[in-house]
# Entry
Amino acid sequence: MSFVWWGGSDFGALDPSDSVRRVMPAMLSLIIGAQTIMAGLFLSLLRIRVVHPEPEVETTEV
# Structure
């Protein structure tokens, strides 16, 4: 949406306070979303169960 707003001013100079006011919430949302996805991936990796094979028992034939 910021590109549309910037295009409305013919891609010229923008007021920095208005630009920051629009871009910062979007960037914050992207960062929080990426961190949520990475945390979900990490937690799913912690839940993977490792199956240990049973040790082989040697039998002696008599």
User: Anything to note?
Assistant: The mean pLDDT is 85.
